[in-house]
Design a protein that fits this description.
Blueprint lengths: L10 H20 L6 H13 L4 H7 L4 H13 L3 E5 L6 E5 L1 H25 L1 H24 L4
Antiparallel strand pairs: 1-2
Length: 151
């Protein structure tokens, strides 16, 4: 007799609940440096990839262009990001400022503490398995979205 495992409940709800809990965890650590987790992630991507076009940055971060624009507003107002002219009249480039590099480095120290604490709470093995599972799910969904018919 074959034992078939069936998911119980809504996957979206469970992922959202976990995401909110993990986000609160990281936010507690990076808040010490005046950041939210989303701001730290955005700064880190621009430090690593910049200067970069907003559309490319949104694609790298798996987010909508409008969400990225909203999230960049506060970082630009703080003087941590600059949005300048790109290669032609219609394009723009996002770049981190020196103050943004300093803020990202502060946030990175806090992020590392948050990661160590989360590893302690969940167990390093469970976190490693979770990362492997999430990466596989992201790849599957990314492939599926790439193959989806355009509207």
């Amino acid at each position: 007799m074959k034992n078939t495992i069936k998911p119980q409940g809504c996957t979206n709800l469970k992922l959202r609940q976990l995401n909110r809990m993990v986000t609160r965890h990281y936010d507690r650590y990076v808040a010490e440096f005046g950041l939210k987790n989303t701001q730290y992630a955005l700064l880190s991507h621009v430090v690593r990839l910049g200067p970069i076009r907003p559309s490319d940055l949104a694609r790298q971060m798996q987010m909508d262009n409008s969400t990225l624009t909203r999230n960049m507003q506060s970082l630009t107002a703080q003087g941590w990001l600059e949005i300048g002219a790109g290669g032609d009249a219609r394009s723009r480039l996002v770049e981190v400022t020196e103050a943004g590099r300093v803020k990202q480095a502060e946030g990175q120290r806090a992020w590392k503490e948050a990661q160590r604490a989360l590893n302690g709470l969940l167990g390093v093995e469970r976190v490693a398995v979770l990362h492997e599972l999430l990466d596989a799910c992201i790849a599957s969904l990314d492939d599926d979205l790439d193959e989806a018919p355009s509207e």
